[in-house]
UniProtKB/TrEMBL annotation:
Example GO BP: DNA repair
Protein name (record): phosphoglycolate phosphatase
Gene Ontology MF term list: phosphoglycolate phosphatase activity
InterPro entries membership: HAD-like_hydrolase_sf, HAD-like_sf, HAD-SF_hydro_IA, HAD_sf, PGP-like_dom2
Broad EC category: hydrolase
Length: 245
């Protein structure tokens, strides 16, 4: 008999492939935002490499604690705004940055793919009566588009995203919204994620945590905040989890 009613998943790195997509998106969006800024008297000494490093991207490596891995686009916009210093308002610059990220995602569907076995596993869990939700740092447009392109969109009872109108992870707001919408309690939820921020989010809300190794964090980084760490969501077994907890 399962102790839990609902499963809440981070999106990128947990359900969808992270590195290929977001390295490409970040690099392309960076160039787009830099070009816009230079048209508005920005600091031209700032390089693309410096902008990417500021959000946790160095070469082909994404920092698990960096902004790209864990934070909403608004945080990237703020850091880039402070470096580039374009002669526009932060509000306008944030809109341009979000648009750049959204456009890069929507113009490059070939970068979007579900991780191996995820679709089948989510379908099985739903058939077993589990409520399923998504809680991501991504924007609304990008979230809905990537779930559609990956073939996962119809599986969720709740989709929560960070688009400036709700406090982002690791604050518990998205998990609380999942509970409110589905009529459940936080202690009836298991949170799945590939970052330390995801684990902090689940713990802050009062849920159990499952760390996965399909994204940016390593096992030793997730273990202090996770109830268990598994290779992938595709390997999750509710019966085994109940026996461990």
């Amino acid at each position: 008999m399962t102790k839990y009613k609902a499963l809440l998943f981070d999106k990128d790195g947990t359900l969808l492939e992270f590195h290929n997509m977001w390295l490409n998106v970040a690099r392309a969006a960076c160039e787009q935002v830099k070009a816009y800024s230079e048209q508005h008297n920005a600091n031209s000494d700032v390089t693309s490499s410096e902008l990417l490093l500021a959000i946790g991207v160095e070469g082909d490596v994404v920092d698990n604690y960096g902004l790209l891995a864990s934070n909403p686009v608004e945080d990237t916009a703020l850091v880039w705004f402070e470096l580039l210093k374009p002669k526009v308002t932060l509000v306008e610059f944030t809109q341009i940055t979000k648009l750049a990220f959204n456009e890069q995602v929507e113009q490059n569907p070939q970068w979007i793919e579900a991780l191996p076995g995820i679709g089948d596993k989510l379908s099985q869990l739903k058939q077993q009566g589990m409520l399923l939700g998504v809680a991501t740092a991504d924007t609304k447009d990008s979230t809905l588009y990537t779930l559609q392109q990956s073939g996962l969109e119809g599986l969720f009872d709740y989709v929560g995203y960070s688009d400036g109108d709700i406090e982002p992870k690791p604050a518990p707001a998205l998990l609380n919204a999942f509970c409110e919408q589905c009529g459940i309690k936080p202690h009836e939820v298991i949170m799945f994620g590939d970052t330390v921020s995801d684990m902090e989010f689940g713990r802050n809300a009062g849920a159990k945590n499952v760390g996965v190794l399909t994204g940016t964090a390593q096992q030793h980084e997730l273990e202090p905040m996770a109830d268990i760490v598994i290779a992938s969501v595709a390997d999750f077994n509710p019966t085994e989890f109940n026996e461990l907890i």
